[in-house]
Design goal:
Layout lengths: L2 H13 L2 H8 L3 H15 L4 E4 L2 E4 L1 H24 L8 E7 L1 H6 L1 H11 L3 E7 L2 H9 L5 E7 L6 E8 L2 E5 L20 E5 L4 H12 L6 E5 L2 H9 L4 E5 H10 L3 E2 L9 E8 L6 H24 L1
Parallel strand pairs: 3-4, 3-5, 8-9, 8-10
Antiparallel strand pairs: 1-2, 5-12, 6-12, 7-10, 7-11
GO molecular function: DNA-binding transcription factor activity; transcription cis-regulatory region binding
Keywords: DNA-binding, Transcription, Transcription regulation
Protein name: DNA-binding transcriptional regulator, LysR family
Length: about 300
């Protein structure tokens, strides 16, 4: 067993795909397969199950991943302690986030980080809201982005980056668009397009109407913000989304924000990491880059409004 095998195992465990792992590591796929096979033979245990075309970690693989991450983190720490501060950073960083943050907040972060640290491999995983925090505890992510109210956690370090505004949006020909002022009662019998239960801001949406004793609203649930947006444009119902998701469609006139002020929601895009994790220079650099980009975006948004 050597560090190269551990690094390969970690990359495969993160991507759950031999071809993507090989691409990230700049190996041919057969090399990756050979290294994993050799590791499994040495450990005398299966680390992955091949379920058709799907690759999943076995229970033993999940346990081994925790130790592999610790060893690789220690090696990064050791290398960092003997390198000059001005040496170019290199290594691998695994990031997880949900669909909204990935599509609308992270591209600028990734672009700036890559321009500054081209030798760092970025591995991104799109993860459902309910599973994001767990990836920090099981070691499959180095840092994650969370869209939620400010999180208090004993095991995680959390840094809010930018506040997210939410609105109700409808197609231009929706009857409620014509009204100057809306009350909660106006929404009875309307169809709402919302995220599935478990999404943090879906819970907030439910609380708003529950407090007003409006339980008869009907809704369609989606996993994708893009699906919600497209259905709203088609006139199927009213979408509840962060403003950043609909900025382009509002400017085109395809969606209109409804004239109803949503009660204050303290929702932030936040970056998080495990408190016990050693913050390598790569992680520190990424956190600093994300903070810089999102602070700039928030300031620009303030100027626009």
């Amino acid at each position: 067993m050597d560090l190269r095998q551990l690094n390969t195992f970690q990359t495969v465990a993160t991507t759950l795909n031999f071809s993507r792992a090989a691409e990230a590591l700049n190996y041919v796929p057969s090399n990756v397969t050979m290294q994993i096979k050799a590791l499994e033979e040495e450990l005398d245990v299966r680390l992955f199950d091949r379920l058709g075309k799907q690759l999943v970690l076995t229970t033993a693989g999940k346990r081994f991943l925790t130790h592999a991450k610790e060893i690789l983190n220690k090696m990064d720490e050791a290398r960092s302690s003997v390198r000059h501060d001005n040496e170019i950073l290199s290594g691998t960083l695994t990031i997880s986030a949900n669909e909204v943050v990935c599509a609308y907040r992270l591209p600028d972060v990734f672009k700036l980080f890559r321009s500054r640290y081209p030798r760092v491999r970025l591995i991104f995983r799109s993860v459902p809201n309910l599973q994001i925090k767990q990836t920090l505890f099981d070691g499959t992510s180095d840092v994650v982005f969370i869209l939620d109210e400010h999180i208090q956690s004993t095991g995680l370090a959390v840094q809010p980056l930018t506040k997210e505004a939410f609105r109700l949006f409808a197609a231009p020909d929706h009857p409620l668009v014509k009204q100057d002022v809306l009350q909660l009662e106006d929404f009875r019998e309307e169809v709402f397009l919302i995220n599935e239960k478990g999404c943090p801001y879906r819970t907030m949406f439910d609380q708003i109407f529950k407090q007003a004793d409006i339980d008869c609203t009907s809704s369609l649930e989606f996993q994708s913000a893009e699906a919600i947006k497209q259905c709203a444009i088609s006139g199927i119902g009213i979408a509840f989304l962060p403003e950043i998701v609909t900025e382009v469609e509002v400017n085109r006139g395809e969606l209109v924000p409804l004239p109803w002020p949503i009660p204050e929601l303290d929702v932030y895009t936040q970056i998080s990491w495990h408190k016990e994790k050693w913050l390598s220079p790569i992680i520190v650099a990424f956190i600093e880059t994300a903070t810089e980009v999102m602070t700039l975006e928030e300031n620009n948004q303030s100027v626009k409004t």
